[in-house]
Design brief:
InterPro entries: eFR1_2_sf, eRF1_2, Pelota/DOM34_N, Pelota_N, TF_pelota
Largest sheet: 4 strands, mixed
Order of helices and strands: EEHEEEHEH
Strand content: 25-35%
CATH architecture of the largest domain: 2-Layer Sandwich
CATH superfamily of the largest domain: eRF1 domain 2
Pfam family, one: Pelota_N
CATH class of the largest domain: Alpha Beta
Number of strands: 6
GO biological process, one term: nuclear-transcribed mRNA catabolic process, no-go decay
Number of domains: 2
Number of helices: 3
Radius of gyration: 24 Å
């Protein structure tokens, strides 16, 4: 479909068997079709724009942290896809009667790892909103942390 194509127009600067030199030509680029882009000299501004265009993180202004006790996914949400940037798994022991210290320490370690993943994988110059979602009170406990 045309929604997944990029049309590039220009003048042919090297003659080949299909297109004469100087003739206008259009090529359609689409996913999973390889192409080579060449230029004698690239300036830093153009290289940065190409790098940003190839990295979906530059267009993701929404992040989501989807979690349950001991498991969290840090995701970037773009208009066309959701990318999982980090998966955090920490074994959380059950609460024992009279002794919750192991459980509490494990939760603290889990929340710390989630925060580190958020700081490492989210660019807050681009991301405008972080959605935190979970069943039960995990979200509230994490936000309090």
């Amino acid at each position: 479909s045309q929604a997944c194509q990029l049309r590039v127009k220009g003048t042919n600067i090297q003659e080949n068997e299909y297109v004469k030199m100087g003739a206008y030509h259009t090529i359609e680029l689409e996913p999973n079709r390889q192409f080579t882009l060449a230029k004698k000299q690239w300036d830093s501004v153009v290289l940065e724009r190409i790098e940003q265009a190839c990295d979906p993180a530059w267009s993701a202004d929404l992040a989501a942290v989807v979690m349950q006790e001991g498991l969290a996914h840090v995701c970037l949400v773009t208009p066309s896809m959701t990318l999982t940037r980090a998966k955090i798994e920490v074994n959380i022991p059950r609460k024992r009667r009279g002794n919750c210290s192991q459980h509490d320490r494990a939760l603290e370690r889990f929340y710390e790892q989630v925060m580190q993943a958020i700081q490492r994988h989210l660019n807050f110059e681009v991301v405008k909103c972080v959605l935190v979602a979970s069943p039960g009170f995990v979200r509230e406990q994490f936000c309090d942390y």
